[in-house]
Design brief:
With about 220 residues, the protein is an alpha+beta fold. It contains 2 helices and 10 strands; from the N terminus they run βαβββββαββββ. It has one domain. A 5-stranded antiparallel sheet has the order 1-9-8-7-10. The N and C termini lie far apart (about 45 Å). InterPro entries: DUF6226 (IPR045773). Pfam families: DUF6226 (PF19736).
């Protein structure tokens, strides 16, 4: 997972580039020119993360210089992800029938100088629905564990070359979480996972070998009243 960048610059990455699932890879279904909105539900909006200024791109057409891949600069740009993650957990708890654990066991989630400093686990009151565990990291960043095997790491890497933007990471988290709670998530041991909603899909495979695929059910909504 994480490792210190070459040359001892600035501290650890959030994770290595290899094998980390985060903000990319979401495929939109339908006709992009049709005018149809493909926005996921704005869970976590109480954090006001959607009001942050738009971040300009750091690199031009030539891309980042090689040394940027081993440099971790302003990690505090990712601090708003903590407030977003906490607000996201609150919104999910208010919307769905879940048990909440504010002290889940998260040992070993991240290594080499980056740890999970606090966590929340939401377990639906339906055994065939996937739990979601949200970990706030010391980077600062967020790791979202879903089901048995799958983790989403935000930012994926955090190095200067990747130049991951908070708005993109928030959208990715919302899309993936929406797939889980709506019953569009499946996974298998070995690193394969699939996320699907009415707006689009994301599918990936690790190194394998893969175990049997498990499709998780939708979360039950909280009873009215």
């Amino acid at each position: 997972m994480g490792r210190r960048p070459r040359g001892g610059l600035c501290g650890p990455r959030h994770r290595d580039h290899d094998g980390a699932r985060g903000s990319g890879g979401w495929l939109i279904d339908g006709d992009p020119g049709s005018g149809r909105a493909f926005e996921p539900p704005r869970r976590g909006a109480a954090s006001r993360v959607d009001e942050l200024p738009v971040e300009p791109g750091r690199w031009g057409a030539d891309g980042p210089p090689q040394e940027a891949y081993s440099r971790v600069g302003d990690t505090e740009r990712y601090r708003p992800l903590h407030a977003f993650a906490l607000a996201l957990a609150d919104d999910l708890e208010a919307e769905f029938d879940v048990e909440r654990d504010d002290e889940p066991a998260l040992d070993g989630w991240l290594t080499e100088g980056v740890q999970v400093v606090t966590g929340i686990r939401l377990r639906p009151r339906r055994s065939d629905a996937a739990p979601i565990t949200i970990g706030l990291t010391s980077f600062p960043g967020v790791v979202v564990g879903v089901g048995e095997f799958t983790r989403l790491t935000l930012p994926v890497c955090g190095c200067d070359a990747c130049d991951e933007h908070v708005a993109d990471l928030v959208r990715s988290a919302r899309e993936h979480v929406d797939a889980v709670v709506s019953g569009g998530f499946a996974e298998a041991s070995g690193g394969w996972e699939s996320f699907r909603t009415e707006r689009g899909s994301s599918e990936g495979g690790g190194s394998g070998p893969f175990g049997p695929r498990r499709a998780w059910a939708a979360w039950p909504h909280r009873p009215a009243g």
